[in-house]
Fold this protein.
Amino acid sequence: MSPITIRLHIRVLRTLLNSIAVLAFFFCSDAAAAENQQTAVEGPTREKLVQLGERMYREGLLPSGKPITALVQGDIPVEGTTFTCVSCHVRSGIGSYEGGVVTLPTNGEILYRPFKDVRRFVTPGVGMIPYFKLPKIQAPPRPAYTDTTLATVLRTGIDPAGRQLDYVMPRYQLSDPDMNILIFYLKALSAQTSPGVTDTTIRFATVITEEVSPKERQEMLSVLNAIVIARNNAGKSKMDSQLPRWAGFSEDLSRSRRKISLAVWELKGPPGTWRSQLEQYYRKEPVFALLAGITTGEWKPVHEFSEANKIPCLFPITDFPVISSTDWYTQYISKGYYQEGEAVARFLGNMEDLSPEKAIVQLYQDTREGRALADGFRETWKTFDRRQPVDCVIKKGNPVTKEYLLQKALSKEKSAILLLWAGPEAYAALEAVAADANKPDMIYLSSSLLKDGFLAVPETVRAFTYITYPYRLGLEITPGKDLGKGSMGVRKDAPVPVATRNVAQKTGSSQSLLPEIFMMMMTNFYRDYMLDIIGMCGDMKDSPYERLSFGPGQRYASKGCYIVQLTPGANPAVVKKSDWVIH
Amino acid sequence: MKRRQALIILVSIVVLSSQGLAAEKKYQRTAEKYSVPDVSLVNQDGKKIPFKSYLETDKPVMVEFIYATCTTICPVLSAGFANLQRKMGADAVKIRLISISIDPENDTPQVMKDYLKKYTASPGWDFLSGKREDIDSVMRSFDAYVANKMYHLPLTLIRSPADGSWVRIKGLMGAADLQDELAQITK
């Protein structure tokens, strides 16, 4: 960074300073005292208390099932369901930053420990602060919390030092028994380092299923190994040496340094046996998280293993992720084929001149790809007030013939819209459809299914055929020289769009978040925090996708898919007919 | 490297800001003139909204920039809107509340509809999303552009129906503050 840039940034900082609010939610008391000071909760078991406390923390619901009530900004009444603890303090309790507001940790480890300097607990990336050689910030030492003062700050916003917390922090109206349950939960929250971390190493694994080709296996592993080597060979950076002696920053940074190791967990046999193989690998050597991973089949068995064991799985290479709005532990690059079906539904659903009664025939082979595309369309189409599609399913391996298309699929519906989830083998049938009096108004195809045949859609149907395209258009992506260190080279002169992206490209872009994650995690080796951090990452624009975006609770980084058409001719151009994200 | 630098700036901002730990209840208020782009956005019902003309109404308009999975300041901003509607009762339709997504990748009509439902929004409060470039141009027109949504600041922009002028409020307001500001604009 040039001196000019630094000066500019400092100027920006100064300009912004006066407008920034800080949420200072200090939970702390002496650890030893906490041991002796058991919160007076009687009756339910520990597991039940944690469960009840977790519901208060994450869902804002009291043990009675009613919403917690609170006041925010001094006089705005809110319900806990819209203002949960987890919103700001995040799932791990380590805290967050957002919109200029810093939320400090509430986890068990920090909660009952006094601290003298707030900066030590600012999340994330304290190691970067000295870059600007900031002056020491005067923040008075915070007395240790007790259960009593913790209850007081939750109810009134006044901490043991008598300071009023920012009004962004809700003042919760809780009875003594409910308060005790919440405090019990906070003590248990991120109280221990997650498995897979030793004093010297953080262990990771990647999952590969046996049917994956040697080429794709190698592509993924070469990227991951490059990341491991880069991380383990990294010495102290220039920035590290600029660290001042602030309140334990240097010590924290030093203590956070770990080598990383990567095990390869190979899964063999039918998917029904994968779960037990994974459990066996895990028992033998627990890992902190799973990085990437690859299968040509469904990721579901690995997904369920991650959920059950609370192990993060970061961006596996799969076209068949689990579609869920609530599961937490697997971060996917996209929804795969499902997302293409979803895009077609949104595209058609937004056509204002399309009659709600327009017939839609969805023809697909009974394959994973066909079912995923059809599910994506069907589920999304339900959100529009329109006539439901007619599904025509062809047995796996049976071709899409013109006879089937004309005499069965399209015979009952005139001027229908045909969603044809098949590969280039269906082109002959499409040619016949084009010449038929009962041809559909529109045809939709998937470029991921067409693969290399994507640009060879018969000319006779191109004028009324639309194709899903789930990648960035107009750019060919090639791995950069520093592959594995977090960036991808982008060549802008590639004229021919391709329908697929290779495993190295997908792995390289999605795993490029890792250095940032390590940096932000510091000594907070909690699995939930790793996922919390991803939720705080900025959008990524240099990837095979138009954009990868992240956010709290978001689980699919690529959220878009173009709908395109081909121009006439032997070397057709690809014309966008939709935005990347279709609203 | 740009991401790393951006993070450095962010962390520096928040650390510097910790000088104001015992935060006071205050915000900055300025009078502004804005020229907004003539773009089409989409609301929670999937309906296209011509943004510029939508603002040009004889009702007071309040605009805030939020996103549905925001953890910290957006819930406060939205709780303010929800509370204002609740307090105004049947008169809530006399003002136009607009939340604009700064995360259009994720904020689809269905997501926005669910969000408004969570805050028990009543008619008169719209959540708008749209093309990334259109959202960016709207943010820029209000001097509210941020490259990374995590950087966004708590802003409330209030348009006077009398002359189309705006009041820009930087900071989070309480219920009484919000009502006071609305009363001033409708004097």
Remarks:
- Residues 1-25 of chain B have pLDDT under 50 and may be disordered.
- The radius of gyration of chain B is 16 Å.
